[in-house]
From TrEMBL:
It catalyses: (R)-4'-phosphopantothenate + L-cysteine + CTP = N-[(R)-4-phosphopantothenoyl]-L-cysteine + CMP + diphosphate + H(+); N-[(R)-4-phosphopantothenoyl]-L-cysteine + H(+) = (R)-4'-phosphopantetheine + CO2. It comes from Streptomyces boluensis. This is Coenzyme A biosynthesis bifunctional protein CoaBC. Its EC number is 4.1.1.36, 6.3.2.5. Binds 1 FMN per subunit. CTP binds at residues 99, 109, 127-130, 147, 161, 165.
Length: 221
C-alpha cells in the first residue's frame, strides 16, 4: 500500500455489534468483537485518511487520531453513519447490525410470574443501512463496502448479497465455531461489483484491512 494514499479523504467505518434492548437490563446481541472494524479504522488513519469510526459496543480502546462515535442500537448506528457519510469518500460497514429488534421496550425489568407461560418476543425489522447508503450514494462517486459472514456456499451467497445490497465491494468471511468472531486473524474473499474476486489468505485483521483499502483506493475518483 502506498504511504498516505488516503490523505485528503474522509472514510467512515462501522464496527462492533448492535444491541437491541428488551428492557433496562437485557438485549439481543451478537458475537462481533469489533476487531476487524477497528483494524480498518487504524489502517485508514495510517494511510492518511480522516476517519470516523462508528462503534457499537466494542470493548476496545479508541484508536489514536480517529473520530469515534459510540452507539448502541441499529437505529443509533444508522443515524451516526448517515451523518458522517454525507461528505465521505468511502464507507465500510464492518459492524454486525441486528436485522431485527424487539417490537417493544419495557421501561421496567421484565419479571417472571409464577405459573405463567413465558411471553414470546415479537420482533420488527431494522433498517438495512448498507443497502440504503449504497442505493442513495449521499456523495457522488462514494465507494461503499459491506461485510458478510456466511457458513456455506460462501461465494454464491456473497455474490447474491453484493447485488442485493448494491455495494461496490463485499468482504465475505466464512464463519464457524472457532472462526472470525473475536479472533485476531481472518480469512476472506473480497468480491467486486465489477466481477472481481480477491482472495485474502489467513492472516491478521490489519492485512485484510489494508487489502480492503487498496481496493477502495483503486475505485476512488
Ligand atoms: O444482510 P447481512 O446482515 O448479512 O449483511 C451484512 C452487511 O450489511 C454488513 O456490511 C452489515 O454492516 C450491513 N447491514 C446493515 N444494516 C442491517 C444489516 C446489515 O448495514 N440492518
Amino acid at each position: 500500500a502506498a504511504e498516505a494514499d488516503l490523505s485528503g479523504r474522509h472514510v467512515v467505518v462501522s464496527a462492533g455489534g448492535t444491541r437491541e434492548p428488551l428492557d433496562p437490563v437485557r438485549y439481543l446481541g451478537n458475537r462481533s468483537s469489533g476487531k476487524q472494524g477497528y483494524a480498518l479504522a487504524r489502517t485508514a488513519a495510517a494511510r492518511g485518511a480522516r476517519v470516523t469510526l462508528v462503534s457499537a459496543n466494542a470493548a476496545l480502546p479508541d484508536p489514536a487520531g480517529v473520530d469515534v462515535v459510540h452507539v448502541g442500537t441499529a437505529v443509533q448506528l444508522r443515524e451516526a453513519v448517515l451523518k458522517a457519510t454525507a461528505d465521505a469518500d468511502a464507507v465500510v460497514m464492518a459492524a454486525a447490525v441486528a436485522d431485527f429488534r424487539p417490537a417493544t421496550y419495557a421501561a421496567g425489568k421484565i419479571k417472571k410470574k409464577d405459573g405463567q407461560e413465558p411471553e414470546p418476543i415479537v420482533l420488527v425489522r431494522n433498517p438495512d443501512i448498507l443497502a440504503e447508503i449504497a442505493g442513495e450514494r449521499p456523495r457522488p462517486g462514494q465507494v461503499v463496502v459491506g461485510f458478510a459472514a456466511e457458513t456455506d456456499d460462501v461465494l454464491a451467497n456473497g455474490r447474491a448479497k453484493l447485488e442485493r445490497k448494491g455495494c461496490d465491494l463485499l468482504v465475505v468471511n466464512e464463519v464457524g465455531e472457532r472462526k472470525t468472531f473475536g479472533a485476531e486473524e481472518n480469512e476472506a474473499v473480497v468480491l467486486g461489483a465489477d466481477g472481481s474476486e480477491t482472495p485474502v489468505p489467513h492472516g491478521p485483521k490489519e492485512a485484510l484491512a489494508d487489502i480492503v483499502w487498496d481496493l477502495v483506493s483503486q475505485r476512488l475518483t
